[in-house]
Amino acid sequence: MSGLPDQAVECVPNVSEGRRADVIQQLCAVAAGVAGAYLLDVHSDPDHHRSVFTIVGSPAAVAEAVFRLGELAVLSIDMRAHRGVHPRIGALDVAPFVPLGQTTMNLCVGLAHALGRRIATELGTPVYFYGEAALGPERKSLADVRRGEYEGLLGTIGTDPSRAPDLGPASLGPAGATAVGARPPLVAFNMHLRSSDVNAAREIARAVRASSGGLPGVQALGLPTSRPGLVQVSINVTDLAETPLHIVAARVQAEAQRIGVELAESELVGLMPAESSLAAAAALLALPGIARTQIIESAYEDVARRAARQGEAPRP
Amino acid sequence: MSGLPDQAVECVPNVSEGRRADVIQQLCAVAAGVAGAYLLDVHSDPDHHRSVFTIVGSPAAVAEAVFRLGELAVLSIDMRAHRGVHPRIGALDVAPFVPLGQTTMNLCVGLAHALGRRIATELGTPVYFYGEAALGPERKSLADVRRGEYEGLLGTIGTDPSRAPDLGPASLGPAGATAVGARPPLVAFNMHLRSSDVNAAREIARAVRASSGGLPGVQALGLPTSRPGLVQVSINVTDLAETPLHIVAARVQAEAQRIGVELAESELVGLMPAESSLAAAAALLALPGIARTQIIESAYEDVARRAARQGEAPRP
Questions:
Q1: Domain-embedded: residue B316
Q2: What is the pLDDT at residue A37?
Q3: How confident is the model at residue A5 (pLDDT cuts 50, 70, 90)?
Q4: Among the four residues A286, A304, B17, B61, which has the most C-beta atoms within 10 Å?
Q5: pLDDT class for B40, splitting at 50, 70, 90?
Q6: Do B284 and A284 touch (CB under 8 A)?
Q7: Based on the domain organization, do B35 and B172 belong to the same domain?
Q8: B86 catalytic residue (yes or no)
């Protein structure tokens, strides 16, 4: 990942709004309005009723952009009326920081904690820290933090000590709560099945996810879609070194074949690291371990940047 | 390809020396010795008795580096004693220029013609222009230019008008002749078969290459290797838009299966464009058309570069 500035982070806030185009538009404008932070992608899904923003840049700029996005989400989204097929606890549902380039995970943990404080104090929203930013082992997993979703949390946040937030009020307003985290790069993608039976998707999800004995570092859910004859295996790969994307894709394919359903096109949610694309290409072409240095554009960028840093003088 | 400077070219000179480590070392030093040109890769193959250099950078710097490499090749290689399994006509056998980023093919044609003039005049070597730099349709194809190889050209260059060089003497010295060209990006890779029978490799090469009715934009040869139990399908994909790499790999795999031989690991000769790696990943993950903008590192580089160009001022 030498193609990036020395201090760069990614944050992938997920907001519980995937239907109102005007609101999504405003959220984008806010997220893109901080110099030094770049909104690279927005993936809105009306079935999930959720939008996933990919923001990269300098640490302070990214944190500021995410805070502003959260502020607008809290003002414009009412969780009491929110229905969607994806688990969620709040308007700004999750905000994970991801180190890029030479950036350390520690820096991302610090960013998460600082953003969590602002969300709790300035927006009055309960905050849970998860992933590498978790304050205890029981909040490492986002699935645990989000258990019961917004509706479940309503009745327990003020009474069950194990559900008390890390920061902010122990009560839920219309904007719900926010999980703020730090984690390694993750790839989210949806594989679609030509079937009207969501149980087919659920069966495949069970077969591939780590929690039910499938592939390490893989989370998966079987979900319906609004498109007729199409159900979805919604996948997060959280440990790309342990289980590369193409292994997951092959496993889903094999399971689909086993139960006799056909795969349709997949979709990427957000972006993927260059490493994942290279690993897939290497597998397909039977080229063991293609590296960044074997891709013309990347290799050229690396040597040109290195030369520029050294202030290379013309040689005779 | 927006990740590159506005004027950037690649040149991939192939030199008929793949065995003497000291000579290859000297060739590398010379090729890497021009400021603004970067030697990204050297692939030496003792069976081919050939080394492939990948040099990128500003047009003038790359042309100068290739000229110096050619000069040393002409001085240190004697084609009269050269034996290798890969077709060749000279010490500096071929030198194709490839446009990168926003660079035009016309610029590469100009570079090829200028380099050809220097090789003919300063090194006294016969020069043939091929590809987009060809002066007539009969020299478009490198295979036609190289027909009969060094040994065949010895007897015809001075007598057969159809084999007369475009520039330089109509006679062959110990350094042979050079084909200088311009072409779109090409990927060269070798797929290996677990077999001792070179005819297996030849049969598969025939099935996949365009000239015998296979895949458009694909050249392939079946070749022996010095490794026991391994033969090689040596492949050039010259039209990556028409036939992406993973289609070629799948076809070779299918043909190998059909005749009952097993594939071993492939090897890339030189580098591949980012586009090819993305296309393979897209195919494997059933993600239709992943773009550069969906790869975190590339997308970030692009927006950051654009912002730097515009001298972006902080927004309120």
A1: no
A2: 94
A3: low
A4: B17
A5: very high
A6: yes
A7: yes
A8: yes
Nearest to B304 among A33, A38, A296 (CB): A38
Residue A176 shares a structural domain with residue A72? yes
Residues A114 and A239 in one domain: no
CA distance A282 to chain B (A): 8
- ipTM attached to this prediction: 0.79
**What global pTM score does this model have?**
0.73
Is pLDDT of A52 > 60? yes
Q: How far is B141 from chain A, CA to nearest CA, in Å?
A: 24
Q: Which CATH number is A210's domain given?
A: 3.30.70.670
Does residue A88 share a domain with residue A48?
yes
Q: Which residues contact B113 (CB under 8 A, 6 or more apart)?
A: B129, B133, B180
Asked if residue A287 belongs to a domain, the reply is no
**Whether B312 and A35 lie within 8 Å, measured CB to CB:** yes
Question: Is residue B126 scored above 70 in pLDDT?
Answer: yes
Q: What is the mean pLDDT of the segment spanning B271-275?
A: 85
The percentage of residues in chain A with a pLDDT greater than 90, rounded to a whole number, is 73
Q: Can you give the residue range of the structural domain that contains A169?
A: 8-182
User: Is B315 inside a domain boundary?
Assistant: no
* Catalytic pick among B48, B49, B82, B86: B86
The answer as to whether A299 is a domain residue is no
- How far B300 CA lies from chain A's nearest CA (Å)? 7
CB spacing of A280 vs B284 below 8 angstroms: yes
Angstrom distance (rounded) from CA B29 to CA B34: 10
Alpha-carbon distance values, A3 to A58, A81, A303, B40, B60 (Å) = 15, 44, 10, 15, 25
Same domain, B109 and B31: yes
Q: At A178, which CATH number? A: 3.30.990.10
Last residue of a domain, one of B148, B182, B216: B182
Domain count, chain B: 3
* Residue numbers in A near B249 (CB within 8 A): 284-286
Q: Tens digit of pLDDT for each residue in A84-132?
A: 888 999 999 999 999 987 899 999 999 999 999 999 999 999 999 999 9
Quick check: A169 pLDDT over 90? yes
Subunit contact B288:A277, Cβ cutoff 8 A? no
* Chain B residue with minimum CA distance to A54: B296
Q: Residue B110: pLDDT above 90?
A: yes
Beta-bridge mates of residue A55: A11, A39
Task: Out of B10, B297, B315, name the one closest to residue A33 (CB).
Answer: B315
From A230's Cα to the closest Cα of chain B, the distance in A is 15
One domain for residues B28 and B110: yes
Q: Which of A82, A86, A113, A246 is catalytic?
A: A86
> Which residue matches tokens 């509706």?
A151
Q: Do A13 and A132 share a structural domain?
A: yes
